[in-house]
Amino acid sequence: MTGDGMDANCELFSLQSRVAVVTGGSRGIGLVIAQAFRKAGATVAVVDLAIDDATPRVEGMPAYRCDVTDENAVGAALDRVSKDLGTVDVLVNNAGINSLGPAESYPTATWRKVLDTNLTGAFFCARHVGARLIREQRPGRIINIASVMGHVAPSMHNAVAYSAAKSGMLGLTRALAVEWAKHAINVNAICPGMILTDLTSSRMTDKSYEAAMRGRIPNGRFGTPEDLVGAAVFLASPAAEIVTGHALNVDAGWMAA
């Protein structure tokens, strides 16, 4: 398509004039999404616990240190972003951790850490961004990075806390989408399948595990963080104007099998 039609399509997926925050954005999935948002025209801030005074920017984007499990730290970091860049109107809740182990002996402290980081942290960030948007009567977008493990139990490894947290994130997505619809704040989730990152790649040294995981995926293909870019830009863009409360699987057919 050429001419006005192409221009219209470009505008449909443009993030010009948007201010976006990506938590856990210093590496992996978060960093790739942050870079894609910037390429689509957004002003992007990276929020991550790994940030320190020596790394005020990540890949050219302003970076802010924040432990998402600390609600005061979340408020302080997001207030700084708004002061420096403008009101945040796109939030990607990507910060997350995982710790494997059998449920019958899973440590309580580890359970709480995974739930606090993956679920409570997402709520803290969404609450802060949502409250400001409501006060200022501005529309917004919140995108929660969940997982296919929020839909189904992990069968290749023991991940009780991670699965519980991602299931909770899907519930959080639906609840906020309904509650904030009247404020024109769209809340959606992306549910990746097996995406190769530094964390997941380390498991592939076990060849039997890798073979079993590939066998679970209809086309046998593992994804990369770049495979999530289209979904994230779409949900943040004008193209998704009335898409809310949705969990978009990006999983190579995992949930269809």
Task: Provide structural commentary.
The protein has 257 residues and is α/β, with parallel strands linked by helices. It has a single domain, classed as NAD(P)-binding Rossmann-like Domain (Rossmann fold, 3-Layer(aba) Sandwich), CATH 3.40.50.720. 42% of the residues lie in helices and 16% in strands. The protein has eight helices and eight strands, in the order H-E-H-E-E-E-H-E-H-E-H-E-H-H-H-E. The chain has helices at 4-12, 28-39, 71-85, 108-135, 160-180, 198-201, 207-216, 229-236, and strands at 19-23, 43-48, 57-58, 61-65, 90-93, 140-145, 185-192, 247-250. Helix 4 (108-135) packs parallel to helix 5. The chain is globular and about 50 Å long.
